[in-house]
């Protein structure tokens, strides 16, 4: 079952790499998040968010092939996805343009839970 772990980390990386494209294509941000593209400050902040997703995606890819870093990278991914869901729920922003992001993060958390279970079982 531990042979499944690289694929799980790869799936998590894919979830995080897709929004990373917004670093080079800021027009995608308005499609992803449903806001007016003319807001320069918001565009800058969301491009920075996309860059951070790229860093997390790179760490997830690295963890797919390096067992020693899997736990800390997985914890970082869970905090990122879980944190977004909690913030979106508190603000009542789980629908509309953010719905697909919430769904992707829920799927990501399920994948992360399976990975954590396999990591836990392998350590026992």
TrEMBL record:
Residue ranges crossing the lipid bilayer per the database entry: 46-65, 72-90, 96-120
Keywords: Membrane, Transmembrane, Transmembrane helix
Protein name as annotated: Phosphopantetheine adenylyltransferase
